[in-house]
Each structure stands twice: as structure tokens, then as C-alpha cells.
Amino acid sequence: DAGVTQSPTHLIKTRGQQVTLRCSPKSGHDTVSWYQQALGQGPQFIFQYYEEEERQRGNFPDRFSGHQFPNYSSELNVNALLLGDSALYLCASSLETGVNYNSPLHFGNGTRLTVT
Amino acid sequence: AQKITQTQPGMFVQEKEAVTLDCTYDTSDPSYGLFWYKQPSSGEMIFLIYQGSYDQQNATEGRYSLNFQKARKSANLVISASQLGDSAMYFCAMREQTGANSKLTFGKGITLSVRP
Question: For residue A8, which of B106, B90, B43, B37 has the smallest C-alpha distance?
């Protein structure tokens, strides 16, 4: 049973560029959330996708956008990269998290983005 | 206001001994879930244990137990018989059930080092 998979594992970009990160949820899961984790900090919620729509969004600018595909996989796009966007980006999947608040999120290994 | 507080500095424990990692939280929602995750240096967030706000008994999962004191709003993680592989960052997180609010709010984490 495949868990949450993310690609790429590492990425180096230059300020002003755009980046796309990808995530495949755990088999059977239909909801994908994205988190940003700066060095030495806890993960911060970016947004969540369910049924191909953004269901909830954290305090992140519009430069951060996403998409969910019919097969439940998801992409995170960041435009006009800033140095402060350097972080570990974690994808998490679950099943109908809007209904069950006791459902644990299953995380991938993350994509480490470095902006120079 | 900070919703999840983890204020312990780096923690050290001798192999085979027990250790307690502290977590306090703040919420006005009567329905919520508390989670602990482990993050090794590889970056993956590994779900350890869950406690629901209405659960009467403290949660246990193998060597992990949660000391839930609702009136004090604390949810401390106890790891018994520490192993070298327990060395990692540990995050306390909360999910509130307010409408479709399903994001996880994380604390800043605690670094645990197990000494041989």
C-alpha cells in the first residue's frame, strides 16, 4: 500500500522564478493538504483540496496556488519566488477530513525548496 | 494567540528510560483532536498518537501514551523505554471541528536526543 509520495525531493530555484511541486495521496485517500515548514519551525497550513476544489486556505499570499486532479493527486505552484519561500513543503492526505476531526493526516517525505 | 505551545528546549534521555514531552493548547471549540507526530531528519512526519476531546481515557499506542489533562489544556506525550531510533523532532498538533475547519495547527516542536 503506497503512502504519500512527493516529487521532487529537492529543488533549487532563483528569486522570481516559478515552481511546481507534486503529490500523490495515500491509496484510498481523497483529500490533500499542503504545509510549509521553515527550518526549526512547525509546519504551517497552506491549503487543502477536496473534490478538485480548494476547501480551506491558510494565511499565504496568492502567489501560492494549487490544483487537485480527478485521481486525487495534487500540485502546489509558487510564483515569483522569494528567499523566504525556502522551506520543506509537506503534502498530507486523508479521507474526508471535513467530517472526521480525529482522522490523522498521512504525510509524505516533503520537497525541500531552496531559493537563491 | 498561539494555539499549540511547546516550550521545552532540546530534551535528552538515556536509552531505556521514559521521557515526557510537554504540550499545551488553546481552543474555545468543545470538539477537537490532539495529535503527536515524529519527524526524523529524513523529513517525513510520522503519526504517533491521537486524543479526542471527548475521550474519557488517555490514549496509548505501544510505547507512546498521552497524558491528557483537559482542564489544564495539556496533552503531554510519554515515551517509555526510549530507543536510539526515537531521536527526532516531535510535534504536537490540534485540529478543531468548526464547520469545515480541518487543518492541523502545529507547535514549534521539541528535539529529543536519546543517549546510549
Answer: B43
